[in-house]
Amino acid sequence: MTELKIATWDYLPDILEMCQKFHENTPFNGIEEYNESRVTDIIISIIEDPANKIAILLVDDGKAVGMVLGVTSTSIFNYGKVATELAWWVDPEYRGKKSLELMKAYEYWATNVAKCSVVQMSLLENDTTESVDRLYKRKGYSPVERAYIKKV
User: Fold this and answer.
1) Residue 100 and residue 67: Cα distance in Å, rounded?
2) Residue 126 confidence (pLDDT) above 90
3) Stated pTM of the model
4) Is 96 left (phi over 0), alpha (psi -120 to 50) or beta?
5) Which residues on adjacent β-strands are paired with residue 108?
6) How far apart are the first and last CA of the chain?
7) CA distances to 67, 70, 128 from 140, in Å
8) How far apart are the C-alpha atoms of 40 and 91, rounded to whole Å?
9) Which end of the chain has fewer CB atoms within 10 angstroms, the N or the C?
């Protein structure tokens, strides 16, 4: 049976494994090198500051099989806070409704804990782009910007 949990130190190895999978399955693979030491530092900073950063996990029988990582910042347009999703990964066999539970929990954290006025989700360019785009729109999100990346 799966359940949602806020990340703790016990889940650090699982989170690092999912970050590696996330990297391998996104367009960042081949553009940016994966540095586990740096990823570890980021995850530690998230675990240590749950008011402004979050790692919500989907856990099955004690093992994390999905995650959403987020941070907050101040809007450049006003003093409102913005929650920005850094990574959303769910092992393929757990995708579907379980992914939506992570999204709902992330939105709850952003609104009720971090007190954000805006929640931002990312859309990677890959084989799931169209279906995730439709999902975001169904959930009330609007596209506002498209990012491009160039390795230099």
Assistant:
1) 11
2) no
3) 0.90
4) left
5) none
6) 45
7) 21, 19, 18
8) 20
9) C
